[in-house]
Each structure stands twice: as structure tokens, then as C-alpha cells.
């Protein structure tokens, strides 16, 4: 049966995360596909009026500008200027009327990010640079980046971890690209043992095992026990009563939150550098929270939301561990609807997983078709994106 076509209130954008060197998300790079510039501004205004920006404290939006002349002079009053970086080609800045418009916008509190076009097109108003790595980094880029000490510079289109390290050495502070999805080298035996314990714990929690069984596995991993006590001592679980045992800590956090925390730890524990997150962790966390929001907005129950969260979190385990997803999932004894979504993208969970998998990548028209199938309009979509990134922003700071 064909569902009736829906008219979206606003164009649908995808949001590519921009991370710092520690892999915390610091900005979002909206991609509106073929939408006209006035449609993009209207959509951003709608997001502003709904409180979208207020819920994403600390995150900037890097907004591509096709034509500086078409930027409204009062843009700084329509949108939260402090939360935006307008991104445009530096070649546009060579025109005097464009420079006058940019000076006015800067006086309104807006900031800019410039894509350098060539060595002769340098503009003295460019403080923040964005280099696209769809090809090689241009000659002279390192010198120019290092010469602008106060700016924030973005390397976009990073393909793998090796290029990420090169861009970090070049002086870039912000990073965007598909590098989190490229499997890294084989883990050490210690990493594999820790992973095995986490998977066993998740299997025990999923079948509602006795607390003593959970406690026994925690006892085998001092680092995992430490992290559990650290979690229950955090602001989110702060209690007047001091925690004195693993049994008490498990009871305090509760099975539902324990399950979500262990799912996150699968990614967080694989970080190669101390103090840094694994690049996949924010992506998996986004999928999980986005899927939960989509299922709840589709009328699903809290239990259905939990299944959606789990599905999103587990959907990248094959990339994380560099092995077949079915092999990783076998010890977890998952429900059939979750397995069908993960292995075949089938059912409600499978459709929501496809939406979530598109939502933080480059724009693909299929995302609008998927939203139509689920009868979700642009308002529900943008609310889901906002709540998902809000949660990711929170957990990335806590881990």
C-alpha cells in the first residue's frame, strides 16, 4: 500500500558532526542538498523559533553560503549570531560590495569560516579557515593555518585516521569526515578480554540475570568497577548515601541505565589515546538517541524506545571490532525485531535505523523518502535530531 505523499514544512537537512582533537562534537555541518539559500535561512529561523539552538549549548552550526549578496542584512537579528559560522568561498570576498556586507554582518555578531580558493585570493577578514580534503591539502595550507593563531580551522572530508593525524599535526583544531567509519588496526588481547566481559555483561542484563552474576563479572575487571563507581558518584546519580559495594552501585544505577552505560562503554573503552573518545562513540550514541526519538514520535512505547536505542548503539559494532556484525551479536541473545533491523534493515526499527544512518552523513534524497514512509514531518525530524545531539553532547562531556 502506498502512503500519501507528505509536504514537509521545511527542507530536510542532514547534520555532519564536527569534532575536536578529543573527538568531542563541537559543531554541526548542516547539508541541505539542493535547497535554495532563502529556504535554508527560513529553516534555520524555524529551528530558532522552536528553541532548537538553545538546547544545543556549546555547539556551533557551520552554515554554507552560496551567495554573500543574498544574506539578509538583519540575519544577526533573525538567528543566534553567536552560534553560527557562515561558510563561503574566499573568492567571493574579493568583491567590494561583498566585503561591505560582511563587515556589517560582523558588526551584528556573526562570524565567518572561509574556504580558501588559491594563494592569490587571500582576504584579510578571514580568521577561520575550512579546507576540504576531497583532494590533497593544497600547497601552502599549513603555512596559512599556522599564521592565523586566533582562528579555528576545520579540515573537512577526512578519509581515515592517518589523514586525521596529519591534519592535527598541520594545526587544524576541528575535524569532519568519514574517518570514524574506517576500521582501525586489530586490538590487543587485553582489549579483546575487556570487550568479551562487556558483551557478557550486556547479555546478562538483557536476560535480567541475578545481580550476583553481574557483580562477579565486575570483580574481574578493576577498571570497569572503577568506572561504575565513578558513574554512580557523578552529578546524575549523586546521593546522600555513600556507595560501599558493587551490589549497591548496580542497584543504584538501575538495570535500564546500566544497559545503556555498558553499550556506550563498548565504544569508549576502545579509544587509542588517553583522554580521547573513540571516533565511533559519538556516532553510535547519535544513532541510538536518534532512533529512540523517532520510535517514540511514531507512537512507540518506552520499551520500544529502549529497543530502538539498543539497535542504534549496536549498529556500528562491526566497524568497531573489524568483524562480521552477526559474530559480535551472537552472545547477546537479541530479540528478532532488533536482529532483523541490524542485519537486514527490516521493520520499524530497520526503517528508523536507515533514517538515523543518513542523518549525520552527506545529504541523500533517500532520507526524505524514509521519513514519508514513517509519516514523520520535518518538525518531528528536527526535534529528533536536536534531542539526539543534545544527549550525545552530554555523554561526551561525562565520559
UniProtKB/TrEMBL annotation:
Superkingdom:
Bacteria
Which intervals hold domain HDOD? Answer: 188-380
- Provide an example Pfam family for this protein: HDOD
Q: Which InterPro entries match?
A: HDOD (IPR013976), RNase_Y/CdgJ (IPR052340)
Q: What is this protein called?
A: HDOD domain-containing protein
Q: Which species does the entry assign this protein to?
A: Undibacterium squillarum
